[in-house]
Amino acid sequence: MEEKNTQEEKVDKVTEATKAPEAKKFPPRKSGNFRKGGKKKMSEKPKDDFDQRVLDLARVTRVMAGGKRMKFRATMVIGDKKGKVGIGIAKGADVSAAIQKAVAKARKKLIEVPIIEGTVAHEVRISDHSAKIMIRPARSGSGIKAGGVMRVVLELAGIRDVVAKILGTNNKVNNAKATIKALNSFVPQAVAASKASNKNPLKPIKANKEIQKDKESK
Questions:
Q1: For residue 208, is it within any domain?
Q2: What's the CATH code of the domain at 163?
Q3: Beta strands across the sheet bearing 111-112
Q4: Pick from 166, 77, 172, 84: nearest CA to 126
Q5: pLDDT digits 0-9 by tens, 74-121
Q6: What is the pTM of this model?
Q7: In a domain, 44, yes or no
């Protein structure tokens, strides 16, 4: 009898060991705690204040010992439309690499443009090798009267009213460099004087009807 009891106990232990484990019970999920796809929200990157434009994109080759090596050259202009603008030129194995390098160079060469009432302080004429340009202030509401790469640079600089003209070569890179040089060549004394005159403007001239009323009242 004792042997049968021990055998029965062994059988019970084997059956208990072979039983499948019971599934764990979890509390029900609350609605609205998860999104579709189960993806976590990524941390948002800080927005860049600078706008960027492609001025020129060219394919260049270099003759090496084993043959020709081809690359891409990108000319980029960046600006915040609040007085800061810069230009960068770089080469890369592909277009995206060239653009990234050019933007990085443009960030290192930013200049501050003195903008007074949406226009420039005074007239500037620059002759940089074959590039010759002219920039002149304009009345408010006249807009940007310029063409080619000069218009792009002036827009990204934040100038609203200006008259500009390309007088020399039509090379985009040279004209863009000359425009940046012109925007960086304003005379500080003239800029300060124009700012002071805007702070203390002259009294507006009376119209003819107001003059007649003054005479009648006298």
A1: no
A2: 3.30.230.10
A3: 51-64, 67-79, 84-92, 111-112
A4: 166
A5: 999 999 988 899 999 999 999 999 999 999 999 999 999 988 888 998
A6: 0.66
A7: no
Contacts of 52 (CB under 8 A, 6+ apart): 76, 77, 78, 103, 106
Please tell me the predicted confidence (pLDDT) of residue 39.
Answer: 52
160 burial (CB, 10 Å; 0-12 / 13-18 / 19+) is middle
Q: Looking up tokens 């081809």, which residue turns up?
A: 70
Average pLDDT, integer, range 178-184: 92
Residue 143: both structure tokens together: 């807009």
Integer Cα distance of 191 and 114 in angstroms = 7
Spell out a b/e string for 65-99, using b for 16 or more CB atoms within 10 Å of the CB, else e: eeeeeebbbbbbbbbbbebbbbbbbbebeeeeebb
Distance CA 77, CA 196 (A): 31
Instruction: Say which CATH number the domain at 60 has.
Output: 3.30.160.20
Tokens encoding 123: 């007239």
DSSP secondary structure of 73-98: EEEEEEE-SSSEEEEEEEEESSHHHH
For 122-177, write each residue's pLDDT tens digit: 899 999 888 999 999 999 888 999 988 999 999 999 999 999 999 999 999 999 99
* Residue 132 buriedness (CB in 10 A; 0-12 / 13-18 / 19+): middle
Geometric angle at alpha carbon 116, from 180 and 143, rounded to 5°:
75
* Residues pairing with 68 in the sheet: 63
